[in-house]
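Obj.: predict assembly geometry.
Materials: sequence records (below).
Method: joint structure prediction, all chains together.
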Amino acid sequence: MSDIILEMRNITKTFPGVKALDNVNFQVEQGEIHALVGENGAGKSTLMKVLSGVYPFGTYEGDILFEGDVCHFKDINESEEKGIVIIHQELALIPELSIAENIFLGNEQSQKGIINWNSTIIEATKLLKKVGLADSPRTLAMDIGVGKQQLVEIAKALSKKVKLLILDEPTAALNEEDSQNLLNLLLEFKKQGMTSIIISHKLNEVSYVADNLTILRDGKSIETLSLKKDNVSEDRIIKGMVGRDLENRFPPREPDIGEVAFEIKNWNVDDPLHAGRKLISNVNFELRKGEIVGIAGLMGAGRTELAMSIFGKSYGKNISGQIIKDGKEIQINNIKDAIDKGLAYVTEDRKTYGLILIDDIKRNISLTSLEKISKRSIIDKHREVKEAEDFRKKMNIRTPSLTQKTGNLSGGNQQKVVLSKWMLSEPDILILDEPTRGIDVGAKYEIYNVINQMAAEGKAVLVISSELPELLGLCDRIYALSEGQITGEVAREEANQETLMKYMTRTGGNGHETS
Amino acid sequence: MKLADLLKNNMRQYGMIVALMFIVLLFSILSDGILLRPLNVTNLILQNSYILVLAIGMVMVIIAGHIDLSVGSVCAFVGAIAAILMIDLQIPTGVAIVLCLVLGAIIGAWHGFFIAYMKMPSFIVTLAGMLLFRGLTMVVLGGQSKSPYPDEFRLISSGFLPDIPFFGFTSYHVLTLLVGVILSLLVIFSELKSRRAELKHDFTVLPKGYFIAKLVTMVAVINVFTFVLASYRGIPNILVILFVLIVLFTFIMNKTVIGRHIYATGGNQKAAELSGVKTKRVTFMVFVNMGVLSALAGLIYAARLNAATPRAGTMFELDAIAAAFIGGASMAGGVGTIIGAVVGGLVMGVMNNGMSLIGVTIDWQQAIKGLVLLAAVGFDIYNRNKSK
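Observations (raw structure tokens):
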């Protein structure tokens, strides 16, 4: 099994002013699953773009050898012809087209430009079977969940006679269960002899699935570790990624928990499209001052829906229930109201819902607090700059200037801008939805620090996360949510992944157990 | 900092102004200097005033992420109603003007309601508005033109600021010269003030030499302009209205919360909404504002023509939209400036006027304007991609 299918030798790629890849060497063996890890900006995606021809031959230095031949790809089509297929982090399905149409998009089953619908559907069905998807190929892509969409992407790759499958953060948007499915599918393909490269931030997944692992840091290939032979710990990998020991992935914290700050009672929310279909039913929970509380739940459990319905009824219909803040019942009718009453909600999708990407850092930070920095509705621009500058220092936002557009920042820095925005609004209750999604290890640590600090200031923090280790490392108390109901509540001391998983997968009933 | 770098970094900011200057220079040479003669400069302002008023409203609509195709028809409709009010019903001019502006606000609210609250695409709502108000114009006018308007109404477009008596020593319009001097002082003062503030906050500012050069250029442009006006009949009333609108809306867009909310709504509506911006209300207000400005433009045009005609304002929407885009606004929303739209409008206006002066026929004018729009926006996008 030591045949080398792919070798990238001394790859150097420069962008104006930046050396994105610096003499990178990378080897993949036939039939293995090879993980490529590194912090954001380490050059993983750039390397894969060089490989797949997104950056054509001539725009980089070095050699690519695929199956022993030197390759000069001018575009993606040429690399796909060779059997190198890349699935990008952002799903590229067209929502309005059916699964079958998406699978064969750009590669239509046709004769002389006329599509053969029969063979399209038949071939699509075969491919769907391979990836374990039972849906009809005529279903529209928008009608299936992200997990299934990811499988359709893989089916699409399979349709191209793939020899080397590259997956860029395939599980970033998936919940634990779908992620597990996907990883098992990769192992299945491996048995059938396919070679894959997987780029991921989730080290537990990497350890589970990969044979070898290459670490990139600052555009350089640092080392390649063999996961199957040597006993490589996650901490060992992290050390390679960040170039230093991360003593602990979670900063230490002494919780100082006060009285109840926020309570939700008998909370019910209907689906905005199908009134009468309950998304959240009879949810009760409380947050204390200085406490970090987690919400664990599988995708579709209603975590985001719960948070957004509380945050100014920004999601759902027929919302009912009580909100009690500092012992008094309050009414929150819109988002402005929620902010004025001391709530903040950091969205799970910072690019779509969190930031104005074409606007600069300071304008994004000040957006929720414009009234605070204005006199008679005229913005005090100096104050705006000063506040933004304070946060840049405090949050360690890495940017040459506050006038940098947020669209040009890395994921970690974008998230810091979003957090700055909400900290400037000085909330008492902070709801964080997937606060570290798609963020590298170093930046995650910084964000955990910020969360701890906010709790230390006496704010009540609610963290929603798909990553159980994150909840376990961060929270004082964790609620499990399943099918719109709270199915369990676990204190930090008693919490572990198994207990949480048990509650998260419990369905039906109105059980609200405290262990 | 080198001059070349400076130009490159501020290409977007100054690009259109440079282009405008180039076009002015080109046509003054081609027209043997007629373009910059006092009479022609005054005419230029009068001819383009209504487009500039529309462009100010339009760029705000575009920044908010929408489009308004109805403005030309609204201009015609308001002009027609103004004629009925003033000519048929003999309502006092001042009252009629206020009623017309309120009518504009109602029309804007009509569009805004469907766009903001019913979530219908602005393109469709205002396309419907374009047909609706063109039709209504013909209905209320019965297909006929209506004229003449009262004299005091016509002063909007044909009047000039009165002069202050200066012992009859000079044939120049003294008040106009004085305005030039006062404006120069204001510009110097405000530029110095903002430079000082920027230095205090460690912003990168222009090197001293360039800063002084910029000030001298601005002062020179202002005074040459007022001097030219002063050698004809002084400052037209309409220029005062335009000046007030430009200053007011630039202030609103740059310095106020509502302005910032408009940019945020156009930049990313969902994110703005989740940040507490009442995006529906913002969108609604932007269309109400556009309605009022359309009404104002309609009145200015009617006063200039001294008649309400069923075909008034045809294609105004396209000129206003072109002005906003030439001035750097982005189709996707969230980007654009009032001053950019005004400069864009002037580029179109000077080209119209210049081409007429050198005898280019109206059909070719149209074609050339189309190419200019394409080139301006293409150049802008090329620059933006390059700087990435």
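Conclusions so far: The CA atoms of residues 76 and 312 of chain B lie 5 Å apart.
To do: check interface contacts against the pulldown list.
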